[in-house]
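Chain X:
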Amino acid sequence: METHLHFSLNVFQSVVSRDLDENQRATRANFIQKLINKKKHLEGRLKLIGGANKYEGNIYIYHAGRWGAICDDSWDEAAAQVACRTFNRTGVATHGGQFGEATEKFWMDDVVCEGNEPSLLQCIFSGWGSSDCERSEVAGVICREKIEESPLPLKQPKRMKTKTFLHQVLDVRGTSLRLVGGRNSNEGRVEIYHKGIWGSICPDGWTIYEAAVVCKHLALGYAEQALQTDYFGSSRIVLSGLQCEGNETNLFMCKHGEFGNVFCPGEKGYVAGAVCTRYLPDLLLDTTVIERTAHLHDVPMFQLQCAMEENCLSKSAYEIQQTNSNWQFETRRLLRFTASSLNIGNAEFRPYLPKHLWQWHLCHMHYHSMEVFATFDILHAAGNRIAEGHKASFCLEDNTCLPGVEQKYSCKNYGDQGVSINCSDIYHYNIDCQWVDVTDVVPGYYTFKVAVNPHARVAEQQYHNNVASCMLTLSDTYAAVHGCKLERP
């Protein structure tokens, strides 16, 4: 063992010297490749730590030779199902370090799954190691055995309770809404008045979309924050399962689960709260630019090495890199396009991360202020994602402005980043990672979706202009994007 360790150290010392000849470079490459191959079979493997058994705990994923935690931002039941499927089980998500604080660095953040992915690697996330989470914000799961249904006796399947519109069960003429417990009239816990009683709303599933409708209902402008908290006090919970699209004019147009005596999971005393404001940005995605600029581009992999470092190609590209010594001469087919977002709001769009947490990207020679500003997905007819963009992080700046508006934000020289009112942030099709790798996608008809601010990490006036949902015709020689329409993420 000591002889082997001594040999490895000598090899390592010799290959990291400053002046390397061709043989030494080959030795270094072989040494590193052996280390990579040794750990390759662990890539993407999961383990659960801190639980009462091996099927529950905080979740850790193996990547690049080490284990790392997953942040609980955007972590939900769909992601938990994907994780537990690894252990041939079903399960539920846990948040806030339920099984203790993270003991490793965070590998993944803002994980968004549909629930049918074979592994977490196929879900959307902010990029390896891109996280602003504290050690207490670690995600976890509780995995349970799948229940096998017996064919006999035959039972009627249990039906899920259908959600109905609030106005169908309440007399809206005698129903009121208010914010109470806040420092001013623009914030507080949300209470609803019905039949002489004020009651709170269950925070389970409470999002910025529901809060936006509350602020609009009360003529307080837009939702700056949607809170699940006891900070504003609490009262008896009378409404659960609230679900809004975000563009309703009042809360009674939203759907709900139960009203009256309701069950509310989660921490005791926590209720739905909102903070309203009259000033927010509003990004409008330009669908015409996407349709006009989308095209296919075949690129040899030796020109994509910088993009590969940012995980901007599909999985097969990295498999080729590991197995083919001449991988640099292989070609990838990219669906390139330009994405332009105009801020039509009455406030600047600013990154939510403080400046000291921005990441320097050597390939682009500037700082990136947002891990996930946009997502690019290709879906087949059933709605399942078959290809996606992997742009790791983004730089926000004023590329063009309407006449009379001065450009304020720039990515150069560690400058402040953002999108000013009446200015556009433009990612041109010739920028690295401004594409979807469609090398493995068979010709056919698909849906192509481009979303900006997809997780609503930055509050906006509205969100139904943040996604361009387009038809994609893909052949062996060309791609056509057409029929784009705006919708919500």
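Chain Y:
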Amino acid sequence: MFIRVYEGEDDIISVLKYIIEKKLTEVYPTIEIVLRIIATTPVTVASAERSFSRLNIIKTYLRNSMTQDRLSALAILSIENDVAHSLDYCALIKDFSLRKSRKHQF
């Protein structure tokens, strides 16, 4: 039924825009949901593959003895490296040292 109504290009984004612009989401709710899932799937797969690729780079033969917590932390730092580069390490070290300090200030 939808093929008879649709007049446009055959790519997913064009069909999804057509359904939204013509307010056909109530008439064809399943088609809209499927098109949204298909339109977002490649991004999800690529980011998952990138994460596993980074994990393989981090966990080399020499680092097999590290704990799971440290491996997870290194993986997050490697995947989110743009956020890690924007951090002020001096302030983080100072804050950490003040919180973990055993000396009492009088």
